[in-house]
Amino acid sequence: MAQIKVYYDRVGNTLTVWLDTPQDEYICEETGEEVILMKDKQGRVIGFEKLNFVQTIVEPLPVAFEMAMA
User: Fold this and answer.
1) Closest CA to 8 of 68, 63, 66, 55
2) Alpha-carbon distance values, 24 to 42, 43, 54, 69 (Å)
3) Which one, of 60, 25, 42, lies nearest residue 16 by Cα?
4) Which one, of 54, 36, 53, 34, lies nearest residue 45 by Cα?
5) How many independent structural domains does the chain possess?
6) Residue from 14, 11, 9 nearest 52 by CA
7) CA pair distance 22, 62, nearest whole angstrom
8) So what's the pLDDT on residue 44?
9) Which residues of 44-67 are buried (b: 16+ CB within 10 A; e: fewer)?
10) Which residue stretches of the chain have pLDDT < 70?
11) Are 40 and 24 within 8 A, CB to CB?
């Protein structure tokens, strides 16, 4: 099973989420809503980055994850 990797940069105020291997990144596409999509050579989204993300929650944030089979 693949792992999802989440990185929060407090200095740069970015939240980066990798759904697949970061080394497979081939091109990035900005959505215009302060979100950057990272894609592989086939054009599949393998990660995204939210710009100007500021975490205001002091306690750990529970995360739910659901995966749909294609």
Assistant:
1) 55
2) 10, 11, 27, 21
3) 25
4) 36
5) 1
6) 14
7) 24
8) 95
9) eebbbbeeebeeeeeeeeeeeeee
10) 1-2, 57-58, 61, 65-70
11) yes
Domain residues for the domain of 6 are 1-70
Q: Considering Cα of 57, then 58, then 64, then 67, what sign does the dihedral take?
A: positive
Angle at CA 15, nearest 5°, toward 55 and 48?
150
Q: Tell me if 55 sits within 8 A of 34, measured CB to CB.
A: no
- Of 57, 62, 63, the C-alpha closest to 10 is 57
**Which tokens hold the place of 10?**
């407090």
Contact 27, 39 (CB under 8 A): yes
Integer-rounded Cα radius of gyration of the chain = 13
**pTM to 2 decimal places:** 0.78
